[in-house]
C-alpha cells in the first residue's frame, strides 16, 4: 500500500492517509494522497462516520456539498469536518447506494461499511462519476483485488504484471488511446463512467462486476414533459444553468484560475467566471512565431472578460527539454495527452492549484467535424451493405482515388475502411474517429476485435473495448442524429481520451482541473433536447451562442472552429525529428512482440513525405516511450 501511494505522490503532495490492520476487516488496506482544496485543515482521509464503522477515501469535488450537508444535518447526522468528503459517509448511511444520485460533481471513491447493515460481512463500495471525470482502475490476481486512481499505482504494487494487452493495443492504434474499460496493461481495467462496484471483503479473491448507476435518458430532465423543443426556449433555460455551473465550480479554499485559448468554450467560461468573481486569473499557452498561436485572440478575450491574464510561451527547445518528463506524466499512452500536459505545466507556472477548463463544449454543442463526417460515412456504410464484399474490396482503391480529390489522404482512408468493412465497428462514428484505418492497422499489429460476454443478469462478465463501443452505439441508436453523435463523443473520445488525459497530466503537476460544461444537471438537460433545440444548420455551437451571445466577445462568434494543438507538424520535422527516429530504431522490449517495426517505420516515412498527418507517427512515438518508461522489467 505504501508503494502504491508513493507512486501517486504527485496527485496529493499535501497529505497521506491509511486504513490498515483493523481486526474487523483482516486482509484489507486503504491508502490515499491528498491535494488540499476544501477544508485545508480538517479534510484528512479516511473520513469516518460518528461510530467509526463507515469510512471513505475519495478523489474529486462535490459542488453541492453545502446543500447536502444541511439536508443531512436536518436528518440528524453530525459532522466533524467542513470537507465535502464527509458527505459521502453520511449520505451512504442515509440513502445507501442511492446516495450517488444526490451527488453533483466529479468523483471516484471507495467506501468501507463494517456495520453489517446490508450484509453479514463488511463490504467495499466503489463508484465513479457519471461522465468519468475522475478515474478508477482495478485488477484481480490470486492475491486478491486492488484498485487505484492510476494504473501506475497498480504497477508499483507488483500485483499487476507489466504486460501489454493485445486487445487494448488494437484500441490504441484505432483511436489514439485505449477505450473504456481496458487499459494497455493486461488484466487492469477501468471502472467505466457512471458505474459502481460492490465487493464483500472476505471474498476479495472473487472478481466483482461493474454495474451502471447513471442513465442520462432516465434523468429528471429527460422525463420532463415540458422540456424545450426549439433553440430559443432551450437557450433561455440553459443560460442560468451555465451561470450556476461556473459559480459552483469556483468554490474552493485556494485560488482558482482558468485555461483560456481563442476558442468558444474557454471564452464562455471566462465570460461567466469574470462575472461571478472579480479579477479571476486566466492564462494561455502561446507558441510565438507559429500559425498555432492563439495568444493574441486570448488576450483580447481576457481584456473583454476583465481577467488577470498571463501568457506562457512554449518553443521547440523548451518542449524537447521536457518531453521525456511529459511522457512519464501520462498514466496511459495517448496521442493527445502531451498537449494537456504542457497546458497544465503552464498553469502551475502561473501559480494555480485549481483551473477551470472548457472541456466538454465540443461534445455537448456539436463542435467537432465528426458531427458532419459521421453523417457522410453513415450513407456510405448503408450503400456498402448492398454490395458483395469482394466487389467492395475491388473498387476500394478507385474509391480512395476519387475521394482523395475532395478530402485529405487520411480522411479518404477512413471512408474506404467504412466502405470495405462496414461491419467491423458498430457505428459509422468510429470510422470518423479512427486514427489508423483498418487497412493500415494490419500493417502494424495483428488486431483483435473481441466482444464482451454478458451474464444472465445483463452484467458484463468479460469487459472489452469493443463491448463498450457496442453498448455506446446501442444507446446512441435510440437518439436523434445530432444527439447520437454527442452521446458517442462523450462516452468514447471524451471519456477515453480527453478526460483521462486531463486528469492524469494535470495531477502530474499537482493541479486540479474542473470542467463546468460537464456539470451533471447541465449535461442531462442538453442530452434531453431534440435536435431542433440544440442545432441550427450552418451555425457553430448554436445553442451555446444563443444562450451566451450577449456576453461573448465578438471576435469569437464568427471564428472558425480549430482544435487546440501544439505545433507538432513543425516540431516533428525540426527539433523532435532525431528523437523520434532514435525511438523508432529501438523499440521498447515490452512492445516488440506486438508491434511490427517495419510498419512503424513506414508510417514515419509517409509523414516525412507529406503522405500522412503528424498524429500517426506521434501516437507511435508516445506509445513506444510510454512502454519504455512504465513497462520496463
Query: What general form does the structure show?
Result: globular
Helical content class: 40-55%
Determine the CATH topology of the domain at 2-163 and 185-214.
Glutamine Phosphoribosylpyrophosphate, subunit 1, domain 1
Query: Which architecture of the domain at 2-163 and 185-214 would the CATH scheme give at its second level?
Result: 4-Layer Sandwich
Residue share in β-strands: 5-15%
Topology, element by element:
Layout (H helix, E strand, L loop, with lengths): L1 H6 L7 E6 L8 E6 L12 E2 L5 E9 L2 H10 L11 H10 L9 E9 L9 E6 L8 E5 L2 E5 L2 H7 L8 H10 L12 E3 L4 E6 L10 E2 L7 H4 L7 H19 L6 E4 L4 H13 L4 E6 L8 H11 L2 E6 L2 H14 L7 H13 L4 E3 L4 H4 L5 H15 L4 H18 L2 H12 L7 H5 L5 H7 L20 H12 L4 H27 L4 E3 L5 H8 L14 H7 L5 H4 L10 H6 L3 H8 L12 H12 L6 H16 L3
Parallel strand pairs: 12-13, 12-15, 13-14, 15-16
Antiparallel strand pairs: 1-2, 3-4, 4-5, 5-6, 6-10, 7-8, 7-9, 10-11
Can you characterise this structure?
The chain has 633 residues and is α/β, with parallel strands linked by helices. Among the domains are: 2-163 and 185-214, 4-Layer Sandwich (Glutamine Phosphoribosylpyrophosphate, subunit 1, domain 1), CATH 3.60.20; 370-466, no CATH class; 568-630, no CATH class. Helices cover 44% and strands 13% of the residues. The strands form 4 sheets. The protein has a 6-stranded antiparallel beta sheet with strand order 3-4-5-6-10-11, covered by helices on one side. Strands 14-13-12-15-16 form a 5-stranded parallel beta sheet, sandwiched between helices. α2 (65-74) crosses α3. The radius of gyration is 24 Å and the shape is globular. The two termini are 21 Å apart. The model has no long low-confidence stretch (mean pLDDT 90).
Amino acid at each position: 500500500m505504501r508503494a502504491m501511494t508513493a507512486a501517486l505522490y504527485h496527485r496529493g503532495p499535501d497529505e497521506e492517509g491509511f486504513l490498515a490492520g483493523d481486526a474487523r476487516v483482516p486482509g484489507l488496506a486503504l491508502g490515499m494522497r491528498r491535494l488540499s482544496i476544501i477544508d485545508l485543515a480538517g479534510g484528512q482521509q479516511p473520513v469516518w462516520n460518528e461510530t467509526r464503522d463507515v469510512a471513505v477515501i475519495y478523489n474529486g469535488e462535490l459542488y453541492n456539498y453545502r446543500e447536502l450537508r444541511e439536508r443531512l444535518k436536518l436528518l440528524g447526522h453530525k459532522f466533524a469536518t467542513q470537507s465535502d468528503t464527509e458527505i459521502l459517509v453520511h449520505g451512504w448511511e442515509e440513502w445507501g447506494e442511492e446516495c450517488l444520485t444526490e451527488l453533483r460533481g466529479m468523483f471516484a471513491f471507495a467506501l468501507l461499511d463494517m456495520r453489517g447493515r446490508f450484509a453479514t460481512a463488511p463490504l467495499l463500495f466503489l463508484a465513479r462519476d457519471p461522465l468519468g471525470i475522475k478515474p478508477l482502475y482495478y485488477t484481480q490476481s490470486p492475491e486478491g483485488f486492488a484498485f487505484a486512481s492510476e494504473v501506475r499505482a497498480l504497477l508499483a504494487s507488483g500485483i499487476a504484471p507489466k504486460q501489454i494487452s493485445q486487445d487494448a493495443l488494437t484500441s490504441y492504434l484505432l483511436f489514439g488511446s485505449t477505450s473504456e474499460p481496458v487499459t494497455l496493461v493486461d488484466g487492469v481495467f477501468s471502472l467505466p463512467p457512471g458505474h459502481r462496484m460492490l465487493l464483500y471483503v472476505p471474498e476479495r479473491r472473487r472478481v466483482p462486476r461493474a454495474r451502471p448507476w447513471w442513465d442520462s435518458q432516465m434523468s429528471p430532465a429527460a422525463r420532463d414533459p415540458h422540456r424545450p423543443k426549439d433553440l430559443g426556449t432551450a437557450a433561455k433555460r440553459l443560460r442560468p444553468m451555465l451561470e450556476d455551473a461556473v459559480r459552483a465550480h469556483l468554490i474552493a479554499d485556494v485560488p482558482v484560475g482558468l485555461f483560456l485559448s481563442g476558442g468558444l468554450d474557454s471564452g464562455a467560461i471566462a465570460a461567466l467566471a469574470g462575472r461571478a468573481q472579480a479579477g479571476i486569473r486566466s492564462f494561455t499557452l502561446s507558441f510565438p512565431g507559429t500559425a498555432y498561436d492563439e495568444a493574441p485572440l486570448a488576450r483580447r478575450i481576457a481584456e473583454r472578460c476583465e481577467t488577470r491574464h498571463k501568457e506562457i510561451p512554449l518553443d521547440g527547445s523548451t518542449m524537447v527539454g521536457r518531453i521525456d518528463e511529459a511522457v512519464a506524466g501520462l498514466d496511459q499512452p495517448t496521442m493527445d495527452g502531451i498537449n494537456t500536459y504542457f497546458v497544465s505545466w503552464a498553469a502551475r507556472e502561473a501559480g494555480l492549484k485549481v483551473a477551470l477548463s472548457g472541456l466538454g463544449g465540443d461534445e455537448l454543442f456539436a463542435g467537432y467535424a465528426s458531427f458532419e463526417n459521421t453523417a457522410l460515412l453513415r450513407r456510405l456504410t448503408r450503400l456498402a451493405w448492398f454490395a458483395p464484399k469482394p466487389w467492395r474490396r475491388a473498387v476500394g482503391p478507385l474509391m480512395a482515388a476519387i475521394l482523395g480529390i475532395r478530402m485529405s489522404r487520411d480522411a479518404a482512408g477512413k471512408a474506404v475502411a467504412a466502405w470495405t468493412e462496414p461491419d467491423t465497428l458498430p457505428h459509422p462514428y468510429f470510422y470518423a474517429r479512427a486514427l489508423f484505418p483498418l487497412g493500415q492497422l494490419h500493417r502494424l499489429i495483428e488486431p483483435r476485435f473481441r466482444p464482451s460476454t454478458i451474464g444472465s443478469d445483463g452484467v458484463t462478465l468479460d469487459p472489452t473495448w469493443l463491448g463498450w463501443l457496442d453498448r455506446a452505439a446501442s444507446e446512441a441508436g435510440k437518439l436523434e442524429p445530432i444527439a447520437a453523435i454527442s452521446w458517442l463523443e462523450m462516452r468514447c473520445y471524451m471519456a477515453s481520451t480527453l478526460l483521462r488525459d486531463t486528469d492524469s497530466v494535470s495531477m502530474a503537476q499537482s493541479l486540479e482541473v474542473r470542467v463546468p460544461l460537464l456539470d451533471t444537471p447541465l449535461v442531462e438537460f442538453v442530452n434531453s433536447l431534440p435536435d431542433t433545440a440544440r442545432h441550427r444548420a450552418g451555425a457553430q455551437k448554436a445553442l451555446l451562442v444563443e444562450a451566451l451571445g450577449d456576453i461573448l466577445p465578438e471576435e469569437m462568434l464568427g471564428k472558425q472552429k480549430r482544435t487546440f494543438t501544439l505545433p507538432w507538424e513543425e516540431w516533428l520535422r525540426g527539433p523532435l525529428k532525431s528523437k523520434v527516429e532514435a525511438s523508432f530504431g529501438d523499440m521498447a522490449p515490452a512492445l516488440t512482440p506486438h508491434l511490427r517495426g517495419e510498419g512503424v517505420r513506414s508510417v514515419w516515412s509517409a509523414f516525412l513525405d507529406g503522405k500522412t498527418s503528424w498524429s500517426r507517427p506521434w501516437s507511435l512515438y508516445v506509445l513506444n516511450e510510454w512502454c519504455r518508461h512504465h513497462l520496463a522489467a
